[in-house]
Design goal:
The protein contains 13 helices and 8 strands. It is of the alpha+beta class. It folds into 3 domains: 10-79, no CATH class; 87-247, no CATH class; 261-372, no CATH class. Helix 8 packs antiparallel against helix 9 (227-248) and helix 11 (294-306) packs across helix 12 (312-321). It is elongated, with a radius of gyration of 32 Å.
């Protein structure tokens, strides 16, 4: 029977233990056990041996020699163990965020880039037949909360079928908007960690969306998001700013009786969105009027400002020519739109007021404004 003999090469064992710990993410106890097997001596205490293990794993010391080993200085690559433990804690927290997203996806849905009102969320239960069949074939009859939210975000009511149909982007990632209909954070648990350090709570929800605004803005400023992506981000952030203004602004209780249409059209001072129809001057001041009351409003504004008489049609044309924006709608009950001279660009204050208007009247968008959202 042949005898087998083993040699212990100190440097090899040290490099192996470091590789286990730093590269393969093996348990610390296993790496410690390997190194302790090379420190079989009664000359030092167990506590001193464990201290040496730490110094070896950190790269400060190394064992050299074969069988008879000597502990010498190393220092070629020093990595404090605290860094590894921080890395582990980070991975563990990201895992918790991923689990929380699967369990509570709605908490991570960005309301400022979602085309729907998230307060009206409910699972989709009226998909047209072919869409329902495709979803069941892919996910089964019972969807996870995450799948339910994505289905809701990418479905649109189909009046012809009195049902909901899936929109482009639900199946094909290439067809999705950059901000993914509000699902941007849901697909980025690592970003959530970088922004707030853990799962979303009632205490950090506002902070999350504030920091998301700054993160997206930096993508545009640094050239990582350009073209349509940049416009989408700017549109999202302006909606956010307008919403925060609405939330933070303490609205004065209106004790006065709301003016009737004639009084509203004759008032020549700016107001705080008394009507969804109105005019915006170049300084961003808003002047409310009744439906189809823009001509009358313009007439009285110019009469008060210039002490000059303009007929009603001429007055509105004058303000429009002078760079005033008009919020109007030719169809009573339909959606209003932002009307501005095609040969000029509205001021930043006018654009800001348009977004304030969107938030005040709970509009998802304001047609006519998006074309002016260019990154400066």
């Amino acid at each position: 029977m042949k005898e087998l003999s083993f040699k212990i090469q100190g440097e090899f064992v040290c490099h192996l233990a470091r590789s286990w710990f730093w590269d393969e993410n093996r348990e610390y106890e296993k790496c410690e056990e390997l190194l302790l097997s090379c420190l079989m001596t009664d000359e030092i205490s167990e506590e001193e041996k464990k201290k040496i293990v730490v110094e070896i794993l950190e790269g400060r010391k190394i064992l050299v020699g074969v069988n008879e080993l000597e502990l010498v200085e190393d220092g070629e690559l020093i990595r404090p163990l605290a860094d590894k433990f921080k890395e582990y804690q980070k991975k563990e927290m990201i895992r918790k965020i991923e689990e929380d997203i699967q369990r509570r996806p709605l908490a991570y849905l960005d309301p400022y880039s979602c085309d729907k009102n998230i307060n009206e969320y409910k699972p989709v239960d009226n998909l047209v037949f072919d869409d329902e069949r495709d979803v069941q074939e892919a996910f089964g009859r019972h969807l996870t909360p995450y799948q339910e939210v994505r289905l809701w975000a990418y479905s649109s009511e189909n009046l012809w079928y009195h049902a909901s149909r899936l929109l482009p982007g639900f199946w094909d990632e290439k067809e999705r908007k950059y901000l993914d209909n509000g699902l941007y954070l849901i697909e980025r648990p690592k970003l959530v960690y970088e922004l707030i350090g853990g799962p979303v709570t009632d205490q950090n929800e506002e902070k999350l969306f504030t920091l998301l605004k700054n993160h997206l803005k930096s993508l545009v400023n640094n050239g990582f998001a350009t073209g349509e992506k940049a416009k989408e981000i700017i549109h999202r952030n302006m909606k956010y700013d307008a919403a925060m203004k609405e939330i933070n602004q303490e609205r004065q209780e209106q004790t006065e009786e709301k003016p009737n249409s004639d009084q509203l059209n004759r008032t020549t001072s700016p107001d705080d969105f008394l009507s969804e129809y109105g005019l915006i001057d170049p300084s961003g001041n808003y002047y409310s009027c009744s439906f189809a009351g823009h001509h009358t409003k313009a007439h009285y504004i110019l009469k008060a400002r210039e002490r000059k008489f303009y007929d009603f049609d001429e007055a509105l044309d004058k303000l429009y020519s002078d760079g005033w924006a008009i919020i109007r709608n030719p169809d009573l009950g339909g959606s209003v739109f932002f009307d501005y001279r095609a040969d000029r660009r509205p001021t930043k204050r006018q654009i800001d007021t348009a977004f304030d208007h969107m938030i005040r009247f709970n509009e998802r968008t304001l047609p006519g404004i998006k074309e002016y959202l260019e990154h400066e």
